[in-house]
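Hey,
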Amino acid sequence: ITDLERLMSRINMATATPRDLAALRRSLEQIPAVHQALSDAKSSLLQVLRESTDEMPDVQTRINEAISDDPPSQISDGGVIRDGFSPELDELRQISRDAKQIIASFESRERARSGIASLRIRFNNISGYFIEVPKASAGRVPPTYERRQTIANAERFTTTELRELERRVLGAETRMAELETSIVAEVRTAVAVETKRLQATARALATLDALAALAETAVRRRYVRPVLHDGDELEIHEARHPVIEALSAEQFIPNDLYMNNSTDRLLIITGPNMGGKSTILRQTALIAILAQMGSFVPATRARLPVLDRIWTRVGASDDLAHGRSTFMVEMTETAAILHNASPRSLVLLDEIGRGTSTFDGLSIAWAVAEHLHDSPEHAAKTLFATHYHELTELAERLPGAQNYRIAVAEQDDAVIFLYRLERGRASKSYGIEVARLAGLPPPVIARARDVLARLERYELDVFAEATPNTEKEIKSEASSEHPPHEAHNGNDALNSASRRAARRALAVQATLFDAVNQNLLDELRGIDVETFSADDARQMLLNIRSRIL
């Protein structure tokens, strides 16, 4: 069965070819088999679809009477109309079929009459039919021959009889093309009148096609029937991504997911690059869509609430045609979510804030997460994947927030992605390991590891040079951040996250430029200010500028 809706569009626009009409005929011929297959169906939907598919015998008959079994795509190729449909066309076809024999017989007679054995009857699109003889024999042609053309090695002639033969043969071919074009147009018009019936049949067949595809996939891929309810709990056991599972040669790692509108409303998901965070977001959306459209889903058990919308902010792309950067597109989409999401929505956010500076991005991501958790009107169930590990502090103070991470294993300085979602927060993102897998040069990877080690080492020690008591102050500060047996409020969590982010940012300056800064500090400490002249000071400033700029 072909795409009937597209085919009907071509028929109504008078662009359908003879093969399109033949395809429509073949499609309608399959409908009795569809009726037979659905005859015992107990589903009311399938019975309605069965009744909605019209065999349209009148249309089949009209096409079958006029169009040949295997017509060419172009009318000009001939053979489109079935023999016996048009007496005039049959007569013209007989003339065309006999033309070769008629021309061959004429050629034999002229050879005998002229005595020129090399005489030939030829044809081209410019001159039509003509008699061609070698120049050496041109003087022997009968006086009734009319010269038409002289070429290098031959002379070309015509006769009254040959012109009449040409008129009959070429006229027949022209008239055949005209007749076939006219008959095809009549059939197209007759079929176009039945557009509404054909469109209704096309819609019913399309629905059956979709249902059959979903049913076959459910059986082959071991999908289960989901339970939809009016509550707020979303519970999926061993969920799988339907597309990745079908395309991947490796076994897909399933994951469980539980959400509600009270204790598990906002799930902060951290983990390594390539660990599967985005896949979990996407598979959750696909399972929700499949369930709500009436399909089985890729899981071992699934209970889902009826959702009003699924909101996504996943991936990165710009809109240069309208002057919008990647970050602007990200913020525009996020704004739409914050203004329109409801408690019955599902929100999927992937790496909010990554398109700008660290502090700006973290601040925006933090505020977005709080809004989706706290706003009575927009408190949707939210999956929030991020590399901002500071956001995991939210789970300590927001009653509906939970931390999840993608599990990994480290073995022999290599990272093994386990693709398993589990409770807790990730310790790091393993970005350098992903860069190594992507093929960055070994020196770049080595330098990146060195810089990372320095940053991590200085995260708590970067303030040590400020005063002798800094280390004690940091320890005191750390203990004050988490007093025992005391609930953390929002500012506590935010302050703790901010301090860690600040240390990390300052550590970049303290580490990357440590060698230069330390040498300068040593030289400045060694200056005897009492004996240092103005010229000495000027020379030192020039020296410092040349070294750091």
